[in-house]
Design a protein that fits this description.
Layout: H1 3-12, E1 19-23, E2 26-31, H2 43-48, H3 52-63, H4 67-73, H5 76-79, H6 82-103, E3 111-114
Parallel strand pairs: 2-3
Antiparallel strand pairs: 1-2
Helix pairs in contact: 3-6
Length: about 120
């Protein structure tokens, strides 16, 4: 299956556990919600796929703080706060999806699901 190497790459980059399912050739990606954040998330991805930095920069401009800095360096208590964790997880998930699209132009999303507890 074409997506197996891509999903394995996400695991290897220590981003998140990403679930994928297919119904009638439509693909949906499920990304985690609050509680999945950790200091260092997105760092390996940005080293191998530098375009993701522009995604973090755009988010930082909108939010008014350096989201990538908090994701990669913490402090943990700041990253764990809801107002930081929610955009951090969302932006990191979008960055992971963009990497998948970049590495395989056949990847398109028919749907995205974000889990929140």
């Amino acid at each position: 299956m074409i997506f197996r190497p891509l999903v394995q790459r996400i695991y290897r980059l220590s981003l998140y556990q990403v679930s994928k399912f297919s119904i009638d050739n439509k693909i949906a990606f499920m990304f985690p919600g609050q509680g999945a954040q950790y200091v260092g998330m997105g760092e390996k991805l940005s080293q191998e796929f530098t375009h993701t930095l522009s995604i973090y920069n755009t988010a930082s401009n909108i939010l008014g703080y350096d989201l990538f800095e908090i994701c990669t360096k913490g402090p943990k208590d700041k990253l764990d706060s809801t107002e930081i964790a929610q955009p951090a997880i969302f932006v990191s998930s979008v960055a992971a999806l963009e990497m998948l699209k970049y590495e395989n132009s056949d990847v398109y999303n028919s749907g995205l699901i974000k889990l929140s507890i």
